Amino acid sequence: MPKTAWKFLLPMMLLATTAFAQAKAELKLGTGVEKYEVVGTSDTFKVAPDTRIYAATRISGVENDKVTMVFLKDGKEASKVELKVPRTPYRTHGYKTMRAGDSGAWTVKVLGPDGTELGSSNFQVEVSGS
Boundaries of each DUF2914 domain copy (predicted)? Predict the structure, then answer.
């Protein structure tokens, strides 16, 4: 193959490998966030009403865009928040304030700019007094 052909093929090969780089979100759940790290981690929470459950995420493969964090109770959307992602990798978090009646099975999902699921985590909540 002539050397000049590589001049055209190499950028196309790099573009193809970049297209296959998959965006993803790693999630940790807890009762607080300190220095970008979630604290009080668990997948089962027994909390008082008005307690926040934080979902801290490390997002990679998304840059200069936004992702959506969705909290679902028993499969139904309970809340969502849009989070800016200025660079990759990037750490950010969202939270859901648990109220009386919020006991049950929960899922938090991080959706990419195009709506594809980048990561999810299931957890149980028991709100005392509910």
Answer: 65-125
CATH class for domain 23-127? mainly beta
Q: What is the pLDDT of residue 73?
A: 97
Amino acid type, 122 = N
Tens-digit pLDDT profile for residues 93-120:
999 999 999 999 999 999 999 999 999 9
- Please report the sign of the dihedral spanned by the C-alpha atoms of residue 100, residue 106, residue 112, residue 118: positive
Distance CA 63, CA 71 (A): 23
- CB-CB contact of 67 with 91 (8 Å): no
Name the one residue in this structure whose structure tokens are 């997948």. 43
